[in-house]
Design a protein that fits this description.
The complex is a heterodimer of chains A (291) and B (258). With 291 residues, chain A is of the alpha/beta class. Helices cover 41% and strands 22% of the residues of chain A. In chain A, helix 6 links the parallel strand 7 and strand 8. Chain B has one domain. Chain B is elongated, with a radius of gyration of 21 Å. The mean pLDDT of chain B is 92. Classes of the chains: A alpha/beta (291), B mainly alpha (258). At the A-B interface, helix 2, strand 6 and helix 3 of A face helix 5 of B.
């Protein structure tokens, strides 16, 4: 049996007129932690939604355990989703029920287990993320880091094969970040999971990842083990790793030169600016006429 | 040519919205048979139905009282104040009960449903349900849909009943209309299928439309604060217009052609 769990082949995805992915290919090995890194707004969450079958690519394939996610029937897709979990950036806990009920939710929906067994499983999952004592709390009573850990307990409730982490470290303090890193690493090996971690926290994720991809400018600009990534000779990869403001990924959004913009006025980028600029000129003309 | 492109794009967007809303209605209608969903429906009946009771009872009482007051001042000129009972009852059962209940329901429960679903979308709760292999249409939309459809006709009946009592309070207790004639002429004039059942049919239709609009607007809302605010407003405006428009058509079908 193949040791590839998720296989993305020449996937092309557009949103409106904007190309998000231009024929990208990547493979996720079973049992490993694969990091997908890239600047904000590059469409990393979109990638997870494409793997989860919530979005459809314009061309190319996404295979999960050898099956094409986007050609499955709805019923089959829902069956397959029981083998994968996603940890959302916000946690996405149900705000009207307690932490305990949140973790119990997938068990109650998908298994016919008795309440006694469900309680044992939920408490064990909460213990794994260190929140057994917070089982009775409502999601609004949790801090951001705790909410993410509670969501992680819910994500592992059904013992999935694959967990998709969407920006797990965003907005976390150093301690919470350390806790989450430890949890992702430990859960991955203890439960024999496969993890895909989408993030822009490069240094942190490279400490736990087995393999990493860097996404920028609609394509994969670098890939390899953390060691290979760190030693990459690609300027793009180095700019990303070192966090340089300018480089192959430009600091400025495409625009005409400053001189051109100020001298002619007509080439200010953005329709709204143009309109307001024209309105200002028209106002001046009217005022002149009045004098 | 630009106007033609805009017209085409606008038409396509509207058609696609109608298609999406129909698919959602389909999902909501066919999600009933699961036994597991019944506690969820009961819970939602409490939220959209029971919690709307106060506003329905208070409004029904005042509308009945005002109608008796207005009706009496006109009818007394012709010595026909004995017809106050049927006037109040028929207006409430045929028109005001179903229509005002639906308008109040759209404002009280419809807007809340839109905001709730919209926020669930904005906080990725609907996405997370999908990723947990739980269909949001079955788990979230269907129970709310059926709760609304079950609750609203009951609220309309309660509204009319309280209104008739309000009419009795003002007409009989305060203005001195004969209690016997208030009830007996009402009893002989109001017909079960023509007036009561038709009123209930109206409120079932209004319920379908209001809950459908409310749920679709929430499900389709842009997941931002402006998006949810716009969706909530649209729910109330569209529902109100739809109720009044459909009421005219239903009235014409039920009472217009003899």
């Amino acid at each position: 049996m193949s040791d590839i769990l998720v296989d993305i082949d020449k996937m092309h995805f557009e949103r409106g007129d904007r190309v998000i992915y231009d024929s990208i290919s990547m493979q996720v090995k079973k049992g490993g932690i694969t990091a997908v890194m890239g600047p904000s707004g590059i469409g990393k969450t979109t990638l997870l939604k494409l793997i989860g079958g919530q979005l459809y690519p314009d061309s190319g394939e996404v295979m999960f355990q050898g099956e094409n996610i986007h050609q499955m029937s709805r019923k089959r897709l829902y069956d397959v989703r029981r083998k994968m979990s996603m940890l959302f950036q916000s946690g996405a806990l149900f705000t009207n029920i307690s932490v305990f009920d949140n973790v119990a939710f997938p068990l109650r929906e998908h298994t016919g287990l008795s309440e006694g067994i469900i309680e044992t499983i939920v408490l064990l999952k909460l213990e794994a993320v260190g929140l057994r004592g917070a089982a009775h709390l409502m999601p609004s009573e949790l801090s951001g880091g705790m909410a993410r850990r509670a969501a992680l307990a819910r994500a592992i409730a059904l013992d999935p094969d694959l967990i998709l982490y969407d920006e797990p470290f965003a907005g976390q303090d150093p301690i919470s970040m350390g806790v989450l890193l430890k949890l992702i690493k430990e859960l991955n090996s203890a439960l024999s999971l496969t993890s895909i971690v989408v993030t822009h926290d490069v240094k942190e994720v490279l400490t736990i990842a087995d393999y990493a991809y860097i996404l920028a400018d609609k394509r994969i600009i670098g890939e390899g083990t953390p060691e290979e990534i760190r030693n990459s000779s690609s300027e793009l990869v180095q700019q990303f790793l070192q966090g340089n403001a300018d480089g192959p990924v430009p600091f400025h959004f495409p625009a005409p030169s400053l001189e051109e913009a100020f001298m002619t006025g007509a080439s200010l980028s953005g329709a709204s600016k143009k309109t307001s600029f024209k309105k200002d000129v028209a106002k001046k003309e009217i005022l002149k006429g009045a004098k | 040519m630009n106007w033609l492109i805009n017209l085409g794009a606008g038409t396509l967007a509207k058609l696609s919205a109608i298609g999406n809303a129909s698919l959602m209605l389909w999902g909501g209608l066919f999600a009933i048979p699961r036994l597991k969903n019944i506690p969820l429906i009961i819970q939602q009946i409490y939220v959209v139905g029971v919690q709307s009771l106060l506003i329905i009872i208070v409004s029904g009482l005042f509308i009945g009282m005002v109608m008796a007051l207005q009706g009496y001042t006109i009818l007394v000129n012709y010595g026909a104040e004995g017809s106050l009972g049927p006037m109040v009852a028929l207006s409430l059962l045929r028109e005001l009960g179903p229509v005002v209940t639906a308008l109040l329901f759209a404002g009280r429960a419809g807007s809340a449903l839109t905001a709730e679903i919209g926020l669930m979308k904005a906080t990725e709760q609907l996405s997370s349900l999908e990723m947990m292999a739980v269909d949001p249409l079955r788990r979230i939309i269907a129970p709310r849909f059926w709760a609304g459809v079950i609750s609203m006709p009951m609220l309309a009946v309660i509204f009319s009943a309280v209104g008739i009592l309000g009419g009795h309070l003002v007409g009989v207790e305060w203005l001195g209309v004969d209690s016997g004639s208030y009830w007996s002429i009402m009893q002989s004039t109001v017909e079960w299928d023509k007036d009561v059942i038709n009123g209930v049919i109206k409120s079932v239709v209004f319920a379908l439309v209001v809950v459908w609009i409310a749920l679709y607007k929430g499900y389709d809302a842009l997941p931002t604060s402006e998006g949810i605010s716009k969706a909530t407003t649209e729910t109330v405006v569209l529902s109100s217009l739809a109720i009044l428009g459909i009421d005219f058509v239903l009235t014409a079908l039920m009472f217009g052609i003899n």
